[in-house]
Amino acid sequence: MTRSTRSTRRSRTVALTASAVMIALGATACGGSSGDSGSGTPGKGGTLTVLNKADFDHLDPQRVYTTEGSSMDEEIVRTLTGWDETGSAPKLVGDLATDTGTPSKGATVWTFHLRHGVKYQDGTEVTAPDVKYGVERFFSSDINGGPPYASQWLVGGADYKGPYQGKELGSVQTPDKYTIVFHLNQPVADFNETTAMPGWSAVPKAHDTGSTYDTKVWSDGPYMIKSYAKNKELVLTRNTYWSQSTDPIRQQNVDEMDVKFGQDEAAIDQQIKADAGTAQTSIQQWPIAGSDLAQLANDPALKSRYYKIPAPGINYLAINTTRVKDLRVRQAIEYAIDKTTVRGAFGGSAYGDYATTMLSPGIGGYKKFNLYSANPSGNLAKAKALMKQAGDPKPTMSIAVENTPTQEHFADAVKTALERIGIHVNISPIEAANYFSTVNNTKNQYDLTWGDWIADWPNASTVLPTLFDGRLIKKNPQANQDLSYLNDPKVNTLIDKAARMTDVKQRNATYGRMDEQIMKDAAVVPLTYMNFSDMSGSKVGGVIPDTILAEPSLVHVYVKH
């Protein structure tokens, strides 16, 4: 999921800059508080105001693929499984389902049993056929933008066109009202982590409004849509039929959530910092602007309402292995990059720890290692020696970045570092809103490309295969995520091997080896394990740092009176 400054692509990168990638990922411990700074029991009642730079790309659960939209959907829709994040590490639990599902036939069949008595906003009960119908919506061309897993994994998914022509998908079965069975075309040992994403939820056919469902999502969660004026305001109110006894994840503390769209990020930062009037009961879902980050992160007065949320993701520089063919030149780039100036462009230490691997701590499969400079500011002598071994070429390289101040400062830092070893760099700024659609199109190739990625769930299976399976380049010429154009048979073999493994320990060890091989190929320079930083007003309590989405989770939020 991309997240550019935290926004749209949950390729999983969100938007740090402006629009597309979800940069939210880091690995340091959460700073500030968990939001319970008021201690005592959560208050009931009141209105929580959410201040957002822009509207959600989607709230339709089968279309949402951003962190902000997914986080807001947790208040409205319930998924088969979900994450309990009240402990020291996220724990997968049953949500609509009674437990985390049962795999059979080598993890190619998954069975879930639904809780009894989960109710929609009109008091009718949620059933297995409603979940089946919801999942089938993934396949309709009217419902686009969501993650690809249903079409990749469900038997018959390649040819199925969705439920609107009256056809059903045979590989999703509902033997009774409370049981749903999925038949997969390959073993997927962590399928029950996929089912925690918003699309694996119930949609009652009678209330489906197709492509306009974004503003009319039918609730089985604690809150329902009261009003929604796109790009202006979304108001959620209590779903009176929701019951705490059937929900292991959420609470229903506030009366309403009022989401306001359209203010500049820095203006939101200053409003919440000032903590006057409704700002006291407000929170932001987009991260603090890079220009404000260092100052706000280090302000002791804000500590109890500042959330530094580590996310399962990475900010990196891809080296195009088909254009920069000499391994020694790529290795020289690894040693030459000064990560201290690079991180400074993104807001400094609050933005994340220096990275040496493509998997970040907290992701299943992460292995700690460092093949290049022990010093984050680089090793110039080693870089120059490698360039000498390569015959001292003086290449000119292009670097693609978003056209935002943050990214342009980053590009300048890369340019300065590489010029010291004889590589001249031309900076190619790309409109932030179109950045990923541009660099993911194989027609537009650069020598160096900035990228960031957030795992869809905390497992290497949603990171390395997506970013480094070279066989996908031809398959997805307009949606190529392999920005380094790496097509290493050793990596591809490990990807296939890991996909077949049902033993999580063995699979994780394989992903660790894969990460090392990618770094031996010098295909990417990992820069930082990302954090997203957000703030709330002084009267907001119960905020949980959600390290799956790198968002402040509102599932237990309350307003102090």
From TrEMBL:
Gene3D superfamilies: Dipeptide-binding Protein, Domain 3, Periplasmic binding protein-like II. PROSITE patterns: PROKAR_LIPOPROTEIN. The keyword Cell division does not apply. Keywords: Signal. The keyword Signal applies. InterPro entries: Peptide/Ni-bd, SBP_5, SBP_5_dom. This is ABC transporter substrate-binding protein.
